[in-house]
Structures are given as C-alpha cells and as structure tokens.
Amino acid sequence: MWKLIGPDGKSYDSKKIGSLGGHRRGRIYGRLDCRAALQAIARGGYVANRVFFLNEEDARSAGYRPCAVCLPEAYVRWKATNKSA
C-alpha cells in the first residue's frame, strides 16, 4: 500500500503508486525525478514533509502548486491564474 494525498488534502492508502511528489510545507508538487527536489532530499530535512499524489488533478485540488523546475509549463499557467502568488 502507498500513502497518498487526495484532492481533499487528506492522506489515504492506495494500491497505486503516486506519480508525483510534493512538499507539505511548501505546498509544491512535481515529478519524482525533479532535480530541485532530489537536491533538497540529498541535503536532508525535506523528507519529513514529503507527500505523494496519484496525479496533478489531486495535487492541485489539495492546494498544491506545480514546481517551476520540473513542470515549468504548468507553473507558468498556475502563475497566470494566481496573480497574488
């Protein structure tokens, strides 16, 4: 079983592996091979706040934004609709 975050922001057990990782405190999601996330994990401290999502829809619904490093197109679209961010 995998522990994922659903669209309501609550965790649940899933038989499917999450396709995206995120950071709970930063409210950011991105690809599992994201260079920025892997660097943060290597420095330590990031792992305690690591969360996983089944897909982008769940991540966005839970209030997370796309990573500017590994999802630049999605980030530009998010930024355009969130002027106060």
TrEMBL record:
Keyword field contains rRNA processing: no
Alphabetized Pfam families for the sequence: Ada_Zn_binding (PF02805)
InterPro entries: Ada-like_dom_sf (IPR035451), Ada_DNA_repair_Zn-bd (IPR004026)
The keyword Phosphoprotein belongs to this UniProt entry's keyword annotation: no
Annotated GO MF terms: DNA binding; methyltransferase activity; zinc ion binding
The name this protein goes by in its record: Metal binding domain of Ada family protein
Domain Ada DNA repair metal-binding intervals: 22-73
Coiled-coil portions: none
Record key words, sorted: Activator
GO biological process assignments: DNA repair; regulation of DNA-templated transcription
